[in-house]
Specification:
Keywords: Acyltransferase, Transferase, Tricarboxylic acid cycle. This is Citrate synthase. The protein is mostly helical. The protein is 56% helix and 2% strand. The chain contains 18 helices and three strands. It has a three-stranded antiparallel β-sheet with strand order 1-2-3. The longest helix has 26 residues, at 132-157. It is globular, with a radius of gyration of 22 Å. The structure holds acetyl coenzyme *A.
């Protein structure tokens, strides 16, 4: 692998040619052992394990461990990891005060990114190499991100925060911090906790997507892990990336309220090249088949709605929109299928998570992948600072006149 990378550099030196590849459609930026995708067949594996299998049989923290450490944990390792997650779930009191200074309507992704980079001011930077201290940093990130997300929700609704509780599992603890309050008798529903656990697993990594590439790029300058992940959160926020889950629900809401549930106008708009509108939650750079995560997410959505006895008209609209798109020539020709964001928002909504927090849920799930990618990049002897080239098309010096001061 290394040899090949060196050859490419040699080729550039000898020929002076560079690759012009907008959007890096066909550029391999690294060699990786973390995640495998076969976009033609709709296959996704973390460290060799199929995504559906992992979602069915594992806890999110085991998958996090798998991504970061390269193997599923033994019972002892699971216990130790759980203990560390519990021990590092609180956020520093001084940092908690930061919440008071954000406007009430601040987007939770902005708050999350700012809070994660703030963690680097409270905790020392990572040393080189991967040791016990690093495990603590991993647990800090995994655990505190979830706490920050729940605290920002409480701030948003003007309720007192609920601290993390020892003894609760990862997703249960999150649900408790979100929905417990002094005036409600809240008990975590194990079926909801399990559904959330699965959704987090589906989001845990996806190789060199926009946010993972940002995490690697920032980390390649030897910026610390918190700074790199904070940048990744900003990339994820974009509506063409993780932000799509929020926009899917807004699109479905629009169809319900403005189009009386009729999906045809939205479908037509998505096909109109003079209109910048795109069908949210549809299409993918790599998948040219059904996104395997969308299949599981659709199943989870039905299970949760059935369990809660909840009928959501937006689910019927989503199913109808999907069906209409799958039968439409435009979508068929371009291999456009639902992606992971199409059905996840409906489940979050049923659980009671507000729409502007959907992308935060994605970020909580994606933390292990970002850490694994960052760590792999730092340990790779062939990795160098990320520094793409460009094709300059601006004015030449012949086209400008001397500056008269
Ligand atoms: N609606 C309508 N047309 C679409 C859509 C869509 N959602 N997605 C792609 N197309 C069309 C493009 O216009 C293009 O048509 P053309 O060949 O006539 O020019 C063709 O399909 C190929 O699409 P590209 O733009 O080349 O796809 P690209 O790989 O650059 O973009 C992306 C992928 C950003 C995901 C795109 O499909 C999209 O915008 N989807 C909607 C947003 C979304 O759901 N994002 C979440 C992705 S998953 C994730 O990040 C977690």
């Amino acid at each position: 692998e290394g040899e090949r990378a060196v050859d490419i550099r040699k080729l550039r030196k000898e020929t002076g040619l560079i690759t012009y590849d907008p959007g890096f459609v066909n550029t391999g930026s690294c060699c990786s052992r973390v995640t495998f995708i076969n976009g033609e067949e709709g296959i996704l594996r973390y460290r060799g394990y199929d995504i559906e299998d992992l979602a069915e049989k594992c806890e999110f923290i085991d998958v996090a461990y798998l991504l970061v450490h390269g193997a599923l944990p033994t019972e002892d390792e699971h216990r130790k990891f759980s203990r560390l997650l519990n021990e590092h779930s609180m956020i520093h009191e001084d940092m908690r005060h930061h919440f008071s200074f954000y406007p009430e309507r601040a987007h939770p992704m902005a708050v999350l990114s700012a809070m994660v980079v703030s963690l680097s001011t409270f905790y020392p930077e990572l040393e080189e190499g991967w040791d016990e201290e690093t495990d603590i940093t991993v647990c800090r990130l995994l655990s505190k991100l979830r706490t920050i997300a729940a605290f920002s929700y409480k701030k948003f609704i003007g309720e007192p925060i609920v601290q993390p509780k020892a003894g609760l599992k990862y997703t249960e603890n999150f649900l408790n911090m979100m929905f417990n309050s002094p005036v409600s008798e809240f008990e975590v529903d194990p079926i909801i906790a399990r559904a959330l656990n699965k959704l987090l697993i589906l989001h845990a990594d996806h190789e060199q997507n926009c946010s993972a590439s940002v995490v690697r790029m920032v980390g390649s300058a030897e910026a610390n892990l918190y700074a790199s992940i904070s940048a990744g959160i900003c990339a994820l926020w974009g509506p063409l990336h993780g932000g799509a889950n929020q926009h899917v629900i807004e699109m479905l809401e629009y169809i319900r309220s403005e189009e009386n549930g009729d999906v045809s106008k939205v479908l037509e708009r998505a096909k109109d090249k003079s209109d910048p509108f795109r069908m949210m939650g549809f299409g993918h750079r790599v998948y040219k088949a059904y996104d395997p995560r969308a299949r599981v997410a659709k199943r989870i959505c039905r299970e949760v709605l059935n369990h809660l006895g909840h009928e959501d008209p937006l689910l019927d609209i989503a199913v109808e929109l999907e069906q209409a798109a799958l039968e439409d020539e435009y979508f068929k020709e371009r291999n456009l299928y639902p992606n992971v964001d199409f059905y996840t928002g409906l489940t979050y909504r049923a659980i009671g998570i507000p729409t502007n927090m959907f992308t935060v849920m994605f970020a909580i799930g994606r933390i292990p992948g970002w850490i694994a990618q960052w760590q792999e990049m730092r340990e790779d002897p062939h990795s160098r600072i990320g520094r793409p080239r460009q094709v300059y098309i601006g004015p030449t010096s012949d086209e400008t006149s001397p500056i008269q001061m």
